[in-house]
């Protein structure tokens, strides 16, 4: 068994020159594993020869694989702006610059600089939200799912929360409204039918044990035909009359009017606030275009009660979240909307998208068959269900490659496309202006 004898000893082996610039601890771990496997393979006669140089190469490869960041940037050419699988809203580098200083220094996260004593973590965004939306008070939690849970747990534990059967939705990631309601301790009281719920259904449902009338944004589905749902302003009216809380889980929640006439069915946060709701909540990283967060705004006395719930400690947000959120809410206040990439993408004129698509096409003309076409895309992220917005796409064809093959080749290079009518499309609604040359380079590399 000469081969067995020639297996290197770990202690000596890890002194190999190649390993000099790598972590000794991790190299030792990997070397032990590889050498053990090598011994087993020799004993079972799976291998009959080996080279020390190959062993070294193997270990370095494994090292690089393990230490490579798993989260990486990709190019989103699906057209879907708020893509939950692809990280939802982008944060501009400009906002990161402002946050960098605060996050890498000590800061006044929970310190009142004026009075020199303990301050309030949530205070930082309250004034901005008050000025922006006219709310009395505000609170930020980890995401909108937490917001829903906190509101129901605080106000509807062992009490009835009234909700329309048409709004008991399941959102992506198995967030099911009825199940979340039950988990929170609320007694779910369903009213109306799948297609129709009337104002009187809310009125009739209220008993002495009712605490909340809840409305939920339908997010990912719409019903057509013989339907009616009760508008928030009517629910607010009933709630006031009967002295219970009205709460709207807005889901995405856009601050200002949407383009492409989407607003006819989807009032903005600013419009909703005109009706003076008790509480509404929405996501930070859907159409608001900021970081992952759940934002709750409404009446001061109710927000005070939410702050007293112990759960808040478990749902609290980090300084980086607060800092970025403040930055983005300020962009709304100052009307500097170009600093919010989600809005910028949503509003980019078709002519501009066409220009970008042509730029890519002209660089690829000799490489593959491509064509600039009009397309339609969804905004995504549980916003404006089933309503498409106009876009521009580039179709890609190469030799006799099947669309699935092209899609995979692009994906292997972190370019995510979509397949439509048996063609691979790059949709420019979600592609950034500074990504065009990289896209060209990837396609040239793949179709060589
Ligand atoms: C997306 C959504 C949620 C969950 O929000 P997250 O910020 O993803 O936690 C809750 N309710 C509705 C209606 C939604 O659309």
From TrEMBL:
GO cellular component, one term: cytoplasm
Record GO terms (molecular function): L-seryl-tRNA(Sec) selenium transferase activity
EC number, as in UniProt: 2.9.1.1
Catalytic activity of the protein: L-seryl-tRNA(Sec) + selenophosphate + H(+) = L-selenocysteinyl-tRNA(Sec) + phosphate
Modified residues (N6-(pyridoxal phosphate)lysine): 286
Compartments, record wording: Cytoplasm
Cross-referenced Gene3D superfamilies: 3.90.1150.180, Type I PLP-dependent aspartate aminotransferase-like (Major domain)
InterPro entries registered for this protein in UniProt: PyrdxlP-dep_Trfase, PyrdxlP-dep_Trfase_major, SelA-like, SelA_trans
Keywords, ordered alphabetically: Cytoplasm, Protein biosynthesis, Pyridoxal phosphate, Selenium, Transferase
Cofactor: pyridoxal 5'-phosphate
Principal cellular location given in the protein's record: cytoplasm
GO biological process, one term: conversion of seryl-tRNAsec to selenocys-tRNAsec
Top EC group: transferase
Pathway: Aminoacyl-tRNA biosynthesis; selenocysteinyl-tRNA(Sec) biosynthesis; selenocysteinyl-tRNA(Sec) from L-seryl-tRNA(Sec) (bacterial route): step 1/1
Secretion signal, residue range per the UniProt entry: none
UniProt family annotation: Belongs to the SelA family.
General function of this protein: Converts seryl-tRNA(Sec) to selenocysteinyl-tRNA(Sec) required for selenoprotein biosynthesis.
Listed name of the protein: L-seryl-tRNA(Sec) selenium transferase
Source species of the chain: Malaciobacter halophilus
Gene designation: selA
């Amino acid at each position: 068994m000469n081969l067995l004898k020639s297996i290197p000893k770990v202690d000596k082996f890890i002194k190999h020159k190649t390993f000099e610039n790598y972590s000794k601890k991790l190299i030792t771990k990997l070397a032990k594993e590889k050498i053990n496997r090598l011994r087993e393979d020799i004993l079972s006669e799976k291998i009959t020869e080996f080279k020390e140089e190959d062993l070294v190469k193997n270990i370095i490869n494994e090292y690089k694989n393990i230490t490579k960041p798993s989260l990486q940037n990709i190019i989103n050419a699906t057209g879907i702006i708020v893509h939950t699988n692809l990280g939802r809203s982008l944060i501009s580098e400009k906002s990161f610059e402002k946050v960098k200083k605060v996050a890498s220094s000590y800061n006044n996260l929970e310190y009142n600089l004026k009075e020199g004593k303990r301050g309030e973590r949530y205070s930082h965004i309250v004034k901005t939200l008050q000025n922006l939306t006219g709310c009395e008070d505000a609170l930020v939690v980890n995401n909108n799912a937490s917001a829903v849970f906190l509101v129901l747990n605080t106000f509807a534990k062992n009490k009835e929360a009234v909700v329309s059967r048409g709004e008991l939705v399941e959102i992506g990631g198995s967030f099911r409204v009825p199940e979340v309601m039950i988990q929170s301790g609320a007694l779910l009281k369903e009213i109306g039918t799948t297609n129709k719920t009337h104002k009187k259904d809310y009125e009739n449902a209220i008993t002495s044990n009712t605490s909340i009338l809840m409305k939920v944004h339908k997010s990912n589905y719409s019903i057509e035909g013989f339907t009616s749902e009760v508008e928030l302003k009517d629910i607010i009216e009933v709630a006031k009359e009967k002295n219970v809380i009205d709460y709207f889980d807005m889901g995405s929640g856009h601050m200002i009017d949407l383009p492409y006439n989407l607003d006819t069915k989807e009032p903005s946060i600013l419009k909703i606030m005109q009706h003076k709701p008790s509480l509404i909540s929405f996501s930070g990283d859907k159409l608001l275009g900021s970081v992952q967060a759940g934002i709750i705004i409404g009446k001061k006395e109710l927000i005070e009660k939410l702050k007293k719930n112990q759960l808040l400690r478990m749902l609290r947000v980090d300084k980086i979240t607060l800092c970025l959120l403040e930055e983005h809410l300020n962009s709304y206040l100052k009307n500097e909307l170009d600093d919010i990439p989600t809005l910028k993408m949503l509003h980019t004129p078709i002519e501009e998208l066409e220009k970008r698509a042509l730029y890519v096409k002209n660089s690829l003309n000799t490489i593959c068959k491509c064509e600039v076409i009009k397309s339609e895309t969804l905004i995504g992220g549980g916003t404006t269900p089933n309503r498409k917005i106009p876009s521009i796409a580039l179709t890609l064809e190469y030799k006799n490659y099947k669309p699935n093959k092209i899609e995979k080749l692009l994906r292997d290079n972190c370019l995510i496309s979509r397949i439509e009518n048996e063609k691979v499309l790059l949709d420019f609604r979600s592609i950034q202006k500074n990504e065009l040359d990289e896209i060209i380079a990837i396609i040239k590399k793949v179709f060589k």
